[in-house]
Write a structure and sequence with these properties.
This protein has an 8-stranded mixed sheet, sandwiched between helices. The N and C termini lie far apart (44 Å). The longest helix has 30 residues. It folds into 2 domains: 160 residues, Rossmann fold (3-Layer(aba) Sandwich), CATH 3.40.50; 130 residues, Orthogonal Bundle (N-(1-d-carboxylethyl)-l-norvaline Dehydrogenase, domain 2), CATH 1.10.1040. Helix 6 packs across helix 10 and helix 6 packs across helix 11. The chain has 12 helices and 8 strands.
Length: 301
């Protein structure tokens, strides 16, 4: 599989970073912006994407399609791409790079394969290119080895083998720790504020968990801007755990915390516009204030 034209759906926070890195490595990176927000248009321009007018044109021109979206959109977009593959009689390979459960991945694989193209399972671990350590693009499934061609200084490609679902599974287990732990921290700090012991807890953390407190101060104020994207990811992790006989409750609760964060006054921010001066205390004050106004059943989804 020779790769030159890489279609990306869609150039959001991660997608535009991946596309920009591939563009700097010499690939022709394309996208379709029909129906997308002004922010997405700006990110595509910033990432140097070449834009086409229709999804049909995008899929027909591309050597491969990378789906990099919020999890809730993954199946809908895959269905739209499958329609193009079928109606245009093309066999453009489709790589789902989203944070979704392996069983969701397998449903998408069926749609793409039934339409007439090959499917590769993918997932991305780490921040977008240019924000520290290069992200790792995990891939699995027949044809996954061809994605090694995308490796560059800013993207590390890790081929896991021929089994669809493996790349999705490692993302689910990894994000269960990272993004799941973040919500546990928000929940306990919010509870401490509601119970009136937040100052005492902070003093204890400073004395016995200094590194954890430092991490919370650095990371939690940025969570509201990403909360709406991560609700679906937590739900996919819950489904993954449930599929192997583990309780889905951990990450159903995590999804509820992200819903709470998504209702704070800070949730309107985009990731590139986060107020870096906002404190941990201000963030937790906002979540605690919502406890008396958001019905419990709504917090739980």
């Amino acid at each position: 599989m020779a790769l030159h034209t890489i279609a990306i759906l869609s150039p959001g926070d991660m997608g535009h970073g991946i596309g920009a890195a591939l563009g700097r490595s010499g690939f022709d990176v394309t996208t379709c912006l029909a129906g997308r927000s002004a922010r997405t248009h700006q990110l595509a321009q910033r990432g140097g994407f070449r834009t086409v007018s229709t999804l049909d044109e995008l899929v027909v021109e591309a050597d491969i399609v990378l789906s990099i979206l919020v999890p809730a959109q993954a199946e809908r977009v895959a269905q739209a791409v499958a329609r193009v593959i079928s109606t245009q009689s093309v066999d453009t390979p489709f790589v789902d790079c989203n944070a979704i459960a392996p069983q969701t991945t397998q449903r998408i694989e069926k749609q793409i394969v039934n339409a007439g193209a090959s499917f590769i399972d993918g997932s991305i671990i780490g921040p977008p290119p240019g924000r520290g350590q290069p992200p790792r693009l995990y891939v699995s499934g027949q044809g996954a080895r061809a994605l090694s061609a995308l490796e560059c200084d800013e993207i590390t490609v890790k081929v896991m083998g021929d089994r669809v679902g493996d790349a999705s599974s490692i993302k689910m287990c990894y994000a269960a720790l990272t993004k799941g732990t973040a919500t546990l921290r928000v929940a306990l700090l919010t509870a401490a504020r509601a119970l009136g012991v937040d100052a005492a807890l902070t003093a204890e953390l400073a004395a016995s968990q200094e590194n954890v407190l430092r991490q919370m101060r650095a990371s939690i104020p940025a969570l509201p801007a990403n909360a709406h994207r991560w609700i679906g990811e937590m739900e996919e992790i819950a489904a993954t755990f449930d599929s192997v006989g583990l309780s889905p409750g951990f990450h159903q609760g995590a999804a509820a915390v992200y819903r709470l964060l998504g209702q704070t006054e800070f949730a309107h921010e985009n990731p590139e516009e986060i107020d870096t001066e906002r404190t941990l205390d201000a963030t937790i004050e906002a979540t605690a204030a919502l406890l008396s106004t958001v019905p419990a059943d709504q917090q739980d989804g």
